[in-house]
Amino acid sequence: MKANNEKIKQEFDHSIQLLRQKKIRITPQRKAVLSYLIASQDHPTVEEIYRDLKPQAADFSLATVYNNVNLLVDQGLVQKIVSSDGATHYDYPLDHHYHLRCRECGKLVDLFYPPLTEIEEFARQVSDFQIEGHHLEVYGLCPDCQDKLTNEAN
């Protein structure tokens, strides 16, 4: 579940500040894409972002969305999630979390499990690595696909 409006505004302002510190131009399109990703709960693809934002501005193109999303990924603000079906989804991680992925329909759902964050400290201690992060994805069948497969079997 994404955070409330105040947290979203704080994250947006903080991200804009980080981009400005790196001398990255803040365009209306960049603001729109960033705001969309912060508020999104659905791990959208670039095409979904474009579809939802296009009605707001005539100067929005699919290439603009691609370029802005890639810049946000490069700056470490947005996480790129490549699914097994080849689709690429994007997530602005408001809180450290993991993902559940339905192996049937590809649906992505956030999973919060704070004890797993300790794995980075453990990994650092046993390996002397400088840990930069980790990623965990749990696969299975979502309730909708379970129901669909059960109904097909009957």
Automatic annotation (TrEMBL):
Cofactor: record remark: Binds 1 zinc ion per subunit.
One GO BP: regulation of secondary metabolite biosynthetic process
Keyword Transcription in record: yes
Cofactor requirement: Zn(2+); Mn(2+); Fe(2+)
Keywords: DNA-binding, Iron, Metal-binding, Repressor, Transcription, Transcription regulation, Zinc
Sequence positions that bind Zn(2+): 102, 105, 142, 145
GO molecular function: DNA-binding transcription factor activity; transcription cis-regulatory region binding; zinc ion binding
Residues that hold Fe cation according to the record: 96, 134
Domain of life: Bacteria
Similarity comment: family membership: Belongs to the Fur family.
Name the record gives this protein: Fur family transcriptional regulator
Organism this protein belongs to: Aerococcus kribbianus
